[in-house]
Amino acid sequence: MAEIIKETVVTQGESQKPIVIAPVTRQATDSQTIEYFVYFIFGIIEILLVFRLILKLMGASTISGFVNFIYAITGVFTLPFQGIFRSAVTEGLETASVLEPSTMVALIVYMIVAWGIVALVRIFSGEQQD
Fold it and tell me: pTM to 2 decimals?
């Protein structure tokens, strides 16, 4: 995660030649890299859980391979929260819409867990945060 910054300074005076400041490269520290990685992994989990929530709400057919894939992957992440609240099912003509509170609880819990892990990384790194 390198960032290159170039600046040009023009002075007012006899000489109108621009002064170019050398490029500055900033590297991410080890703790920042860990933070980015944690947010990336938990971000993927959150996105998959949102897909599950939307597919369930819309009554997506389990005949689809994509729907089965999302349900299989996210089932592992919602399993600890099953049974906290009842699921609401609405029968339609062709599909059944399901509101899974366990998925919403999982979204909130995994967001807090990611934030907690990043907070611990910052504490143990000892680096000053901007």
Answer: 0.73
